[in-house]
């Protein structure tokens, strides 16, 4: 009698992967714990997608809803990097079209003004200047709105966001002439929505929406949402322990199940172990379990099962 004709115990490991539903929106998750920024980042990457990224005003509002009545500051995924970039205030990211004056930007400051002649200059943000906002119309087209009272860049941004869409975004010569014509008419250099900073999103996103607490210059290289300050952001020491916000869906759950099968066929034969897997999937689907993938965990030889050694 060959050994295959006897009933032999085999051990194998079944891997169950449970899928989570696909996600369209950001899905923020407040974790009311106490971790440093880096620890929070690791946690979010393990369980969700990453620390929260806030791309625009609607994300900011969704984040505010997630935080609700939570009162302590919470980390988001923004951390200071080493490379400043020129970016647009409305969040769309780094500037493609630019019209710098010769030898500009010269490092004078992180905000940008349009000269009456239509070229651009970098400058400190605290001076009062006339400014250009833009507004997206219901039909999807954009138009500029100009303001003559002189405000700082931050205050201009605040007013543009409150009354329109944001500070002006410029992507063509046509756009630039429209802004320059108004600057020229008022004989004043004019703020536009271009600014520079070195902050980076943990998930690698290049969006440039910022919602800092105005007039605060707290030191620190990590960004935290201050719920008591209308959800505005403050820079804080990355080693401080705090609650935090992750985004993304829960990662697929992995489960291993060890199983012993008594069989009179050779389960180390992969055609047989594959057939057994198919049978298992069928049983699961008959019970309407379809969000689970099953597979064998295979050893370095590609075997799913081992003969169980009898220890006499
Ligand atoms: C299960 O397998 C299918 C098809 O191979 C795949 O599309 C799906 O993403 C897998 N699900 C998980 C949770 O791995
Ligand atoms: C804001 O960003 C989210 C992704 O973070 C995107 O799904 C949404 O469409 C954006 N909303 C607007 C108004 O741009
Ligand atoms: C977060 O935890 C603190 C105690 O650690 C608790 O007082 C507070 O109510 C919690 N907040 C939320 C929103 O669960
Ligand atoms: C900017 O220019 C583009 C194309 O040149 C145009 O479609 C858009 O309406 C202009 N934006 C504004 C605010 O005028």
What does this structure look like?
By secondary structure, the chain is an alpha+beta fold. Helix content is 21%, strand content 36%. It has five helices and 17 strands. The strands form two sheets. Strands 2, 3, 4, 5, 6, 7, 8, 9, 10, 11, 12, 13 and 14 form a 13-stranded mixed sheet that branches. It starts with 7 loop residues before the first strand and ends in a 5-residue tail after the last strand. 29% of the residues are buried. The mean pLDDT is 90. Bound molecules: 2-acetamido-2-deoxy-beta-D-glucopyranose (4 copies). One 2-acetamido-2-deoxy-beta-D-glucopyranose binds at residues 25-26, 55-56, 58-59. One 2-acetamido-2-deoxy-beta-D-glucopyranose binds next to strand 9 and helix 4. Keywords: Signal. Residues 1-22 form the signal peptide. This is C-type lectin domain-containing protein.
Q: How are the elements arranged and paired?
A:
Elements: E1 8-18, E2 28-35, H1 37-47, E3 50-51, H2 57-67, E4 74-88, E5 93-94, E6 111-114, E7 120-123, E8 129-136, E9 142-151, H3 153-163, E10 166-167, H4 173-186, E11 190-201, E12 222-226, E13 232-236, E14 242-247, E15 253-263, H5 270-286, E16 292-296, E17 305-307
Bound molecules: 2-acetamido-2-deoxy-beta-D-glucopyranose (NAG) (4 copies).
One 2-acetamido-2-deoxy-beta-D-glucopyranose is lined by residues 25-26, 55-56, 58-59.
């Amino acid at each position: 009698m060959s050994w295959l004709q006897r009933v032999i115990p085999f051990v194998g490991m079944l891997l169950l992967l449970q899928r989570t539903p696909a996600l369209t929106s950001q899905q923020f998750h407040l974790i009311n714990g106490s971790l440093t920024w880096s620890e929070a980042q690791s946690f979010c990457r393990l369980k969700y997608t990453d620390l929260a990224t806030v791309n625009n005003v609607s994300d900011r509002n969704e984040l505010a809803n997630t935080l609700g009545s939570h009162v302590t500051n919470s980390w988001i995924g923004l951390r200071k990097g080493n490379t400043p970039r020129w970016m647009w205030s409305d969040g769309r990211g780094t500037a493609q079209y630019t019209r710098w004056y010769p030898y500009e930007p010269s490092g004078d400051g992180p905000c940008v003004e349009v000269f009456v002649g239509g070229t651009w200059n970098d400058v400190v943000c605290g001076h009062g200047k006339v400014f250009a906002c833009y507004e997206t119309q219901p039909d999807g087209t954009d138009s500029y709105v100009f303001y003559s009272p002189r405000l700082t860049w931050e205050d201009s941004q605040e007013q543009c966001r409150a009354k329109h869409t944001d500070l002006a975004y410029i992507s063509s010569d046509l756009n630039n002439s429209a802004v320059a014509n108004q600057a020229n008419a008022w004989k004043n250099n004019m703020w536009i929505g271009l600014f520079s900073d070195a902050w980076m999103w943990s998930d690698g996103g290049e969006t440039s929406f910022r919602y800092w607490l105005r007039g605060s210059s707290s030191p620190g290289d990590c960004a935290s949402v201050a719920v008591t300050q209308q959800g505005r952001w403050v820079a804080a020491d990355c080693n401080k322990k705090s609650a935090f916000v992750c985004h993304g869906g829960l990662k697929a759950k992995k489960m291993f199940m060890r199983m012993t099968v008594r069989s009179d066929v050779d389960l180390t034969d992969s055609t047989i172990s594959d057939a057994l897997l198919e049978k298992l999937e069928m049983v699961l689907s008959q019970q309407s379990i379809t969000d689970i993938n099953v597979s064998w965990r295979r050893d370095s030889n590609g075997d799913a099962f081992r003969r169980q050694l009898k220890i006499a």
